[in-house]
User: Fold this.
Amino acid sequence: MERPGAGAINSNECENVSREEEMSEEFEADAMDSLKDMPFATIDIKDDCEITDAPHINLERSKENERISKDQIKKRKKKQKGYQPNYFLSIPITNKEITRGIKILQNAILQQDERLAKAMTSDGSFHITLLVMQLLNEDEVNLGIGALLELKPFVEEILQGKELILPFQGVDTFGNQVGFVKLAEGHHINPLLEIAEAAKRTFQEKGFMAGENRSFKPHLTFMKLSRTPWLRRKGVKKIDPKFYEKFISHTFGEEMVHRIDLCSMLKKKQSNGYYHCESSIVIDATACAPRNV
Assistant:
């Protein structure tokens, strides 16, 4: 799989990265649904990264303004015991073998109950959620972008010159409400958990409410019943295990982590179905590769 060059990607460039998988999709305006869709077990998100209307980002903020903003965030954090995440860090799924396999799975389920069509995650939206957070305004979004840029060297230090390959195998659900493709067990789990912890630490040190009271269980959502609440009135209250029993041990493929995106849950998705992406970092595993002396 070919990887892009190392460095940060702004919102306009992020759209170009994902454009080749572009496909139109009806925008879902249900904000609460997007909050429930995220991988932090009760939260999952909508789809993949590309941008059509991202705002211009000014990263040249003064240290004084940044300090004031951080103080404001910390004061807000003390006042709020609970919070509604509206942004997240996404690892986009770009391997077409994986997306084709999920599409076959979804079609197999729809052949058994076509009413579930609206519960399915669209092709452009497949991702792994690394962290969820609350960013209340454009200033905080800019600070969030800064935190994402600061995360990059930590990620490369964790990888130590090695590529992070995520293999997906099997299917499961969260309480028979959210269907997801499982991340297979293996040596890739520890570095992924370390990256998630580094992301949480980096954003929390900025004063953001990020990952509060939520455990990180990496998964790849393909459907969720919260998108189709009207089906409960028709007796569809859970995902029947029989729908996906033939895929329990199915191998979907491998994704090489090459990019992490800062995405919005609530802003209008891009034309290819991926979330509105504020900024991205490209992961260069070779940046911290051990050197022979």
